[in-house]
Amino acid sequence: MKIMGRVFRFGDDIDTDAIIPARYLNTSDPEELKKHCMEDADPSFPSKVGKGDIIVAGKNFGCGSSREHAPIAIKACGVSCVIASSFARIFFRNSFNMGLLIFESDEASGEIRESDIVEVDASTGLIKNITTGKQYQARPIPQFMQELIADGGLMEHIIKRGGI
Amino acid sequence: MTIAEKILAAHTDAREVTPGDIVKVNVDVALANDITAPLAIKAFESGKQAKPADPDKIVFVLDHFTPNKDIASANQCKMVRDFARRHELEHFFDAGEVGVEHALLPEKGLVLPGDLIIGADSHTCTYGALGAFATGVGSTDLAGAMLTAQAWMKVPESMKFVFKGELLPWVGGKDLILYLIGDIGVDGGLYRVLEIEGPAIDSLDVSGRLTISNMAIEAGAKAGIIRADAKTEAYVKPRARRPYTIYTSDEDARYVSIREYDCSNIEPQVAFPHLPENTRPISEVGEVRIDQVFIGSCTNGRIEDLRVSAEILKGRKVDRGVRCIVMPATPDVFRQAEAEGLIRIFLESGAIIGPPSCGPCLGGHLGILAKGEKALATTNRNFVGRMGDPASEVYLSGPAVAAASAIAGKISSPSEVM
User: Fold this and answer.
1) Cβ contact, residue pair B385, A21, below 8 Å
2) How many contacts does A have with B, using Cβ atoms within 8 A?
3) Mean pLDDT of the B321-331 span
4) Distance CA B123, CA B380 (A)
């Protein structure tokens, strides 16, 4: 599967309070959460972002809370994937469980600029910057997590296989 | 093997595990709160035969937006309450039994040395202080554990930290962990286990150790483990209602790094906005006036924290420009503080006493900051907007500096007000 979108850039250590502030966690409704996505990092983000767009960030994206509302909010905004130099570990797990595509690449994270158009091959992790013509290879996804994705997420995996 | 590797291995079919392995583990406790349980319940009920594998392993605590701050949060709590009744969950904490989860579970003996604990709350790592492997996960992982009593884990590498020497006056667990995070950064322990030891750690009570493990996540770590000792046993023995196991790391256990700190150089610490790694010793803080002080939370809301705060506030007044909010983390802490006369000390100093709740720490309710305001909190995070308006600022410290600062109206050392 190939995805293509316009890039919104963020810096290092984007925390879950920036992705979805706790003051909005009195609901888990994706339609409500998306209105406040990235609000404390860029208040205009929810109004600017469109379907298929891509977030590119620095290191330790999603640090902080375990709230699954964070990947839910990002996905509900229409964001097709997040590329970062590294992800905080709970956010990393949650993204797989929620079906939000994420890719780790230091070079892509460092070189891709705001508003570039980027194409990602979700099955191979090949990232192409259409604007500049440069290509990057994301770090491989562990075999077990590929199985989770293939099964459609953790719950589907458990139901299908009768356990974890 | 390290403690972490031994606990993980003991919860699998394997005799040994190696960092990098992905293993299926049996969990002893699966915890969620009023923010994360609703999503977990929704995911759980997507299963065909949605029956908990072992209801006694599930712990739900309604502690974040309670007493409910609005209709939406009341509805979330009601959903969890209905589920707990339907499945007859014994370990369901509501109303007058609610305490801040990571203060409550150790106190109730629900988490024990050698346990493998997952919780849909990032500060689940707190229980590492009892010699357990405890880590935060999302709601879906938790739903998986409710359904199967299992979870999948990538076996993490361990980093060792040794705190040597004696603690300086007014230094506690919070200062040590802030110092550590200031050293390695907010992703310095990413995907790894922090194993923390040394004479200074031995000298801390269980409460101070819980504070340290609580903030392992603020270095990105999967767990923060402190070996159980005689103090741990004295704490857990009267509380435990099931057997537990104490693990120690082998002599030849492998660590990706070993760092040593000399506590004779570690002053009380303050983390500046907007990351816990922005630490400074109290002597280098400078003039920072504050509008609010919050003493409480899963990090520093235990009786030992309130005792330190009361020692400083006794016979003194909170500055008129400061709202000083004190929240005992659990009903038992509240009762103990009342019995010891601490509540009276707080009231007479001009502090506000709140109910056990996570409220202010995450900007939920019961102490929200306005635009441009500054707070000093004994909590664990100072991200942008954490306690209120995105243009407010949060500084982090231990209870001693927090109490002294409430009196001075600016961030201050206890020695400046006593």
Assistant:
1) yes
2) 144
3) 98
4) 9
Q: In chain A, which residue's Cα lies nearest the Cα of B53? A: A163
Of the candidates A22, A39, A68, the beta carbon closest to that of B39 is on: A68
Using CA coordinates, name the residue in chain B closest to A156: B47
Burial class (CB in 10 A: 0-12, 13-18, 19+), A24: middle
Rounded to a whole number, what is the distance in Å from the CA of B77 to chain A's nearest CA? Answer: 10
| Closest residue by Cα to residue B154 from A92, A67, A79 | A92
Tell me if B140 and A142 make a contact (CB, 8 A cut-off).
Answer: no
What's the rounded mean pLDDT across residues B168-193?
98
pLDDT surpasses 80 at B311: yes
Optimal mutation site among B140, B192, B278, B394, interface A, most CBs of chain A within 10 A: B140
Structure confidence by residue, pLDDT tens digits, B44-54 = 998 777 899 99
Distance, in angstroms, between B334 CA and closest chain A CA? 26
Phi, psi of A3 (to 5 degrees): -125, 150
Which amino acid appears at position B63 of this protein? Answer: D
Tens of pLDDT along B113-158? Answer: 999 999 999 999 999 999 999 999 999 999 999 999 999 999 999 9
B346 to chain A, closest Cα gap in Å = 28
Q: What is the mean pLDDT of residues B159-185?
A: 98
Which tokens is B144 given?
A: 């998986």
DSSP class of residue A113? -
Q: Is the dihedral of CA B88, B90, B91, B93 positive or negative?
A: positive
pLDDT reported for residue A1 = 82
pTM: 0.97
Question: How far is the C-alpha of B372 from the C-alpha of B388, rounded, in Å?
Answer: 10
Among candidates B120, B143, B152 on the partner chain, residue whose Cβ is nearest the Cβ of A66 = B120
ipTM of the complex: 0.94
Helices (H), A10-105: 16-19, 30-33, 45-48, 69-76, 89-98
- Dist. CA B175–CA B299, nearest whole Å: 12
**First-to-last CA distance in chain B?**
47
Residue A143's pLDDT band, with cuts at 50, 70 and 90, is: confident
Nearest to B220 among A66, A88, A163 (CB): A88
In this complex, do B138 and A97 lie within 8 Å of one another by their Cβ atoms?
yes
- Tell me the shortest Cα–Cα distance from B225 to chain A, in angstroms: 17
DSSP state of B402: H
pLDDT digits (tens, 9 = 90+) for A34-90: 999 999 999 999 999 999 999 999 999 999 999 999 999 999 999 999 999 999 999
